[in-house]
Design a protein that fits this description.
366 residues, four-stranded mixed sheet, three-stranded mixed sheet, 12 helices, 44% helix
């Protein structure tokens, strides 16, 4: 364990080679998983089947690239427990990392530092209790430090993992609907076999709900397109969206935008306990692999952008506050009463549909 502690304390910024080696290792493993169809965002799971990594001591979810990387390690090694922690955290909970267990490195990013505050004469500033006062100073360049963490299944003596309570069938659906409404995104349902975000009209186009095999499938698709919607110049102004649409379907930026939307929908689906369905990502697999080969840091950039996208839509829902189910039911009843009869065409299930689905869209799509 002493080796893990020494590794954890070394700043990555002391050696560019070590930093690049870390990113290359992450990228190489993800490339293997993408090719095998086992990368977390390329897997389908139902609500409750999988969960994104969380810290064993705080219960907080890991974020950005650390989240995607630990999920990748868990899938590779077959861990079913989503909890991870440092050696010190495990010990603090009364647990012990088993001998010869290999930890996983993640990155801690430092964006600011603390400095002792001094007066005009250079003397330390003290508070009313006589204790030194520190000031926070933003760093010109963020610093990254590697930390080693262990999965709960590599440890003995940890508190029992509490299983997530089974949600009623439509609870995640109700929450996903609230997120869509709170976003303010304009959504148009059309009887077509495609879903996409139209940047020119700033509108999400989706098939009718009845064309999907179940409720989660509809909302998983909607959350993917909502991820693209966040990239509009009036919102997050994401370069991959703007350049991807300008350069077209086969461009690297288009594939990078799709990677961000897919990881974002996975993160949001996990937080809403909605599950994940990546069935329409297949056209971009080769581009994702090439992007990681060209730049091993791309998955961390994509994951960070995806985290911002997920936070953006969920923060809007929090600002709006919870809606009463009764009010939502009345609204749905009124909407249904206003709707005209419409023909419903089920989404085709043949393999060719996936490629067709991508090619018909007017912007990065699922």
């Amino acid at each position: 364990m002493s080796g893990a502690r020494r590794f954890r304390s070394r700043p990555a910024t002391n050696g560019a080679d070590r930093s690049e080696a870390y990113y290359r290792k992450v990228a190489d493993q993800l490339i293997e998983q993408i090719e095998a169809g086992t990368a977390r965002w390329t897997q389908a799971w139902q609500p409750g089947e999988k969960a994104m990594p969380r810290n064993v001591a705080t219960g907080k979810a890991y974020r950005g690239g650390n989240s995607v990387w630990l999920a990748s390690v868990a899938d590779q090694r077959g861990y079913q427990d989503e909890r991870w922690g440092t050696y010190k955290q495990v010990k603090g909970l009364g647990g012990q990392v088993r001998r010869r267990e290999k930890g996983s490195a993640i990155l801690f990013w430092q964006f600011e530092t603390r400095k002792l505050a001094r007066d005009r004469n250079g003397k330390p500033v003290l508070d009313e209790n006589g204790k030194p006062v520190y000031e926070t100073i933003p760093l010109d360049r963020p610093r990254s430090y590697p930390y080693t963490v262990f999965n709960a299944e590599q440890c003995d003596g940890l508190p029992r993992r509490e299983p997530q309570p089974a949600a009623r069938a439509w609870d995640p659906i109700e929450e996903a609907e609230r997120v869509l409404k709170a976003s303010g995104a304009e959504i148009e349902n059309a009887g077509k076999n495609r879903a996409y975000y139209d940047l020119r009209r700033d509108r999400i186009i989706l098939p009718y709900k009845e064309q999907f095999p179940n409720g989660p499938a509809y909302y998983q698709t909607a959350l993917h397109e909502l991820g693209h919607w966040t990239g509009h110049p009036d919102r997050l102004n994401r370069a991959t969206l703007m350049q991807g649409i300008e350069e077209g379907f086969a461009s690297p930026h288009y594939a990078r935008e799709e990677l961000r939307a897919e990881i974002s929908s996975m993160m949001t689906g996990d937080r809403l306990r909605l599950g994940h369905d990546p069935s329409r990502h297949a056209a971009y697999v080769g581009s994702w692999i090439q992007a990681l080969k060209d730049d091993p840091r791309e998955v961390y950039r994509a994951s960070q952008d995806a985290q911002v996208m997920s936070d953006y839509v969920l923060d809007r829902a929090r600002e709006k506050g919870p809606q009463r189910q009764a009010d939502s039911a009345v609204e749905r009843g009124r909407d249904a009463a206003r709707e005209k009869p419409r023909p419903v065409r089920p989404l085709p299930e043949q393999p060719g549909f996936r490629r067709h689905f991508h090619r018909e869209v007017a912007g990065p799509s699922r």
